Amino acid sequence: MQLKGWALDTVLASSAYFAASILTFEVLMPLQNVFFPEYPSHASLLFLPHGVRVLAAWLLGWRAIFALLPGVFLVFAMVGGWDVFLPNRLLAIGIAVTTVPAVLYACKWAGWDLFPSPDRKPCWLCIMVVGIVTSFLVSALTNMAFGSSMAEYIAFLIGDISGLFFLMLGLYLTFRFIDRRS
Amino acid sequence: MTEISKLTELRKLMQSMERTLGLEELSPVERDIYYAAEELSKTGREVRTFGLIEHTLVSSVSRPTFFRALKSLVQKGYMSQSGSANRGRYIVHAPK
Question: How far apart are CA A13 and CA A156, in angstroms?
């Protein structure tokens, strides 16, 4: 029963990550290139997958690492082909799936437990703060792994933070739309 | 946590965002009562006023405010009085 739940979490989290990546790379980035053709970086300024990994880690805790791994690997393989097996790509995959749960558990250890609880109201601004902190960490660590420029670093930061905010806003509007339809 | 509970937590997170951004249809007290009722309704079909008023989210709300907000929730269709003879029982509905 527990195994079935974990499998379902993995399918849902990885599918959400993959779908958010497709939307980012196939729809948002072409639009970005049309509206900001002079922008020097190849990174997305609205990186929705960051929102998926933050919300997955918030809901699933450490299990988000394994739940997101297939989706993150698939996206890296889609973008880089066989290069996905290069050490720096594997390191970047590891950074992408572990950083958010690590920050959430560090917060909990420091006495700031943000994980969902039935008797507590969730705080979306706190989740945004965690998203911003992890974005700094992920950007710094990923840039170290890839050896990217400062422009890429700034682009990663903007993309992650806006991606988290707009993913949550999109989710909110989706829930509202479903509620009105039902 | 079950899949339904995860969805509920996600919805609660979105509702906290809704509140901060001023997109909500309910007042803070109405929202707290609705959260509490939603939580309590997991254990049974109906929610009793007695249990609701003692919930952590609602315990600091004064009785007149509580009953005013409860009445408003019923009028807005978020909750309805149970058909049974006991008037202190409510059924929780999904937001419209």
Answer: 21
Q: Which domain holds residue B80?
A: 26-92
Task: Determine contact, residues A115/A108, Cβ cutoff 8 Å.
Answer: yes
Quote the minimal CA–CA distance from A95 to chain B in Å.
24
Q: Pinpoint the alpha helices (H) of A36-123.
A: 48-60, 63-80, 87-109
Q: Tell me which residue range forms the domain holding A149.
A: 2-181
DSSP codes of every residue in A140-164? HHHHHHHT--HHHHHHHHHHHHHHH
Chain B residues with beta carbon closer than 8 angstroms to that of A5: 2-3
Mutant choice from B8, B10, B34 vs A, greatest count of A C-beta within 10 A:
B10
Cβ–Cβ below 8 Å for B10 and A8: no
Question: Per the structure, how many domains does chain A have?
Answer: 1
pTM: 0.72
Q: What is the CATH number of the domain that holds B76?
A: 1.10.10.10
What does the pLDDT profile of chain A (182 residues) look like in tens digits?
677 888 999 999 999 999 999 999 999 988 888 888 777 667 788 999 999 999 999 999 999 999 999 999 999 999 888 888 988 889 889 999 999 999 999 999 999 999 988 777 888 899 999 999 999 888 888 777 777 777 778 888 889 999 999 999 898 888 878 776 66
ipTM of the complex: 0.77
| Least CB–CB distance from B94: residue in A116, A124, A182 | A182
